[in-house]
Amino acid sequence: MGKMEGVRQMAGADKLFREKLERFLCSLGINFDHLHLLTSLILGKPVNSDDDLSKLSQEDQEKIIAELKKGQEHILRLIQQAFFIQQAL
Amino acid sequence: MAEELKNFEELRQESPEALARQILALHKELGDLREKNGLLEAENERLTFDIVTGLKLRRFFYEDLAERIKEMTEEELGSPETPEAVAFFDVNYLSFFNEELGRGHKGGDEALRFVSQAVKEADPSLMEGFRHGGDEIVGMIRGGFEAAEGMVYSVNVKLKNARVAGSELPVSVSSGVAHISEAFEAYRKFIAETKIEDPENKIDKIMNFLVAIADRRATRAKAMNSILKLIELKQQNPELYQKVKPYLEKGALRIGESSIEKLSTMTESEKLAFIEGHINGTLEARFEQEIEKIRIEHRLIAEIADRRDGMKKE
Question: CA B250, CA B95: separation in Å to the nearest integer?
Answer without folding.
Answer: 10
